[in-house]
Amino acid sequence: MNDPSKSNKVRDDQIGRDTVCTCKECDHGLARDCLKINCTCCNQESHSMILDGIVGLAPISKRHGHYTEVRSVLVSTDSIKLHADLTIPKNAEGIVLFAHGSGSSRHSPRNKYVAQVLQKADLATLLIDLLTEEEEKVDDYTAHLRFDIGLLAKRLASATNWVIKNLDTKNLSIGYFGASTGAAAALVASVDCPVAISAIVSRGGRPDLAGPVLPRVKAPTLLIVGGNDSPVIEMNEEALNLLKIEKKIVIVPDATHLFEEPGTLEQVARLAADWFVTHLTKTKNQKKSKKETAVGTH
Questions:
Q1: Structure pTM?
Q2: Per-residue pLDDT tens digits of the chain, which is 298 residues long
Q3: For residue 115, what are the contacts with CB-CB under 8 A and spacing of at least 6?
Q4: HSE of 146 in the Cβ direction (CA atoms, 13 Å)?
Q5: 227: closest CA among 268, 186, 187, 185?
Q6: Domain ranges of the chain
Q7: Are 203 and 272 spatial neighbours (Cβ–Cβ below 8 Å)?
Q8: Which of 216, 231, 246, 284 has its CA 20 to 30 A from that of 72?
């Protein structure tokens, strides 16, 4: 006979590894936290599968709120259109644009995971492919476009302008989340849009590829690196010294470049959420305060 306790353990392990708790009442970060204390307000609908790519709708128990829909959009940049997934929680005050890393795309399960955690923190997300489908096919063989930081940064800046003009996102403070070479593109693009960008987070990034623009970055920047990713640690520490704004580096113990080790990607997501909530919310409040002051002077 099957041992029920073993099957329950397998179920709990799967939930702990693959799901985020989206229940607004208990406000646990991960489903595993609910399991530990036998949370009574959660149910299966409030645990959203994400690491296997099933993002579609991030359900929240109906008695606690609404459904956060993932919308497929086309972002125009120069003469091309880029595919992106846009998610806007009901109470969003900021939006985070994702610049994917070497050979990755908006379908990256790691970035989808981080995006879901940010959405739970009431941050909108835009996961965008900075290369067209045809360019991705070419890059699979040549691997040169993923290192064309100028091209990636230009397209990220164009996506930023799209966000600023879009009716649903124009009032949101903007941040960048960059992974690997995407982190360099985020840093360069922030210099092209210095007023618009309020925060940057790099996951296992290559900020060194941003080169001479680093001292000109104006957005508060968080660099997250794996503790076992030795060459990248050194690159990030050198980049940190060149940044002249609010900055921080966090080294996640026992993590390698892709943060595949248990619990490490969760730390990345929580660190990113804290950084963005602090800086994007603060930026919006400052803008509101300036507006109120201006109104009061008339």
A1: 0.73
A2: 545 454 444 444 444 444 556 565 665 555 656 666 667 776 655 555 433 333 333 333 333 334 467 888 888 877 888 888 999 998 899 999 999 765 556 767 888 889 999 999 999 999 998 877 777 676 666 666 777 888 899 999 999 999 999 999 999 999 999 988 899 999 999 998 888 999 999 999 999 999 899 999 999 999 999 999 989 999 999 999 999 999 999 999 999 888 888 889 999 999 999 999 999 986 555 544 433 333 333 3
A3: 87, 96, 98, 125, 127
A4: 19
A5: 268
A6: 1-62, 67-296
A7: yes
A8: 284
Buried b vs exposed e over 152-165: b needs ≥16 C-beta within 10 Å? Answer: bbbbbbbbbebbee
The fold adopted by the segment(s) 67-296 is Rossmann fold (3.40.50)
Which residues are 68's β-sheet partners? 58
